[in-house]
Amino acid sequence: MPNRPFTAAWAEAFQSVIEADDAYRSAAAKWTWPVALILSPAPELGFPDAVAVELQLDRGRCSGAQVVSADAVTAPIALTAPYAVWKSVVRGELDPIVGVTRGKIAVRGSLATLMMHARAATALVACAKAVPTEFPDEE
Amino acid sequence: MPLVQREAESAYFELYRKAKQLHWDPATIDLRADRAQWPQIRRDFAAERFPEQILRLTSLFYEGEESVTKTLAPFCSAVSRLGLGIDKELFLTTQLYEEAKHFEFFARYFREVFDEDGSITRQYMTPAPQAVLVADLEEVTERLRREDDPARLRATFAEALTHYMGVVEAMLARTGYVGAHDALASRGWLPGLQEGYRLIKRDEGRHVSFGMRCVAELTTAHPELKPVVQGVFERHLPNVLATVQEFDYPSPLVDLDKLTAYALAQYERFAAAAGLDGGHVDLDALSAED
Q: Do the Cβ atoms of B37 and B190 come closer than 8 Å?
């Protein structure tokens, strides 16, 4: 059943897809840091405040996916973008690394680490494409 | 100091040998077709701003080559003071000569094709390329020149190698030469400039191989230097990406995404050589690129 992005149910489904994805497990074998995906406020779509999905990632595994407010993010690497950009990423239309290099996705944390593991980042969001998603601007 | 057998058979000596074999002279590249084409390109493609993009690209190369020519000498001295081997010093002499040739090529190109003395290049030196190509490179190589303490000199050498060969040459110069050569070759434009790009890129491949190998050896023997290498990339990746984005014109001359991907692949190779990806560094696999 599709869920709205950046909700607890969607994050849980995202975690399940990551855990089942062999391509991600291989690409992220050396990735050992939690990551937060932060959605900028989009009140017109039901997101009055910035919200984040924090993923507990370690060597190809995802042991948790929590929805938290952007202020509560503790992950050392956080990617922030507006709704339209995340939608493009989730749909597989925008590679997250291209999003970063083009300045569409802001990075907080080690850019060098993220770029060193670009394939892991790409494989991670490829998992998001497989998550049944109900986009609020299409409801 | 004798050249011992181990040094005469080293990968650094092989790079030195290749540099001698692959000699070329910037004064002999034929620029007649370029001189004939440039006014046509300026006239026929002004709307696409292709002439401006070619000038911007070539200006960054001009400024970059001038900067790396001026800042390489402290590396030779540091290698000697650290006792890292005459084979490395021999190679660096070829690199210094080659950087001077690259600068000579662009100076000649501005004079003979663009009909400029090179001073217009300054207008394209916005904060990101100015920091990464000139100001910060001068700063780190000046520290390299002055440092006396052996441990700090080794750390500064790792920092300077990463900045010069990893960021400036691998990520910016080689990427730029690939993108610029492809852009001109696909249009059949400026064959003399294409030839210069091709030859310079070939030289840069040896320089990057030298830097990668040195950094790999340093971080393998002194793992505490890995954060120094990472720190350089943390500081300058945003400058590299910002420099590439300056070519994001409505009608771009170069394929920006391809260029960015190439720059990041160069970064990945250099960082992996420094052991930043957590993997094993295979020194034998760090062969010279053509």
A: yes
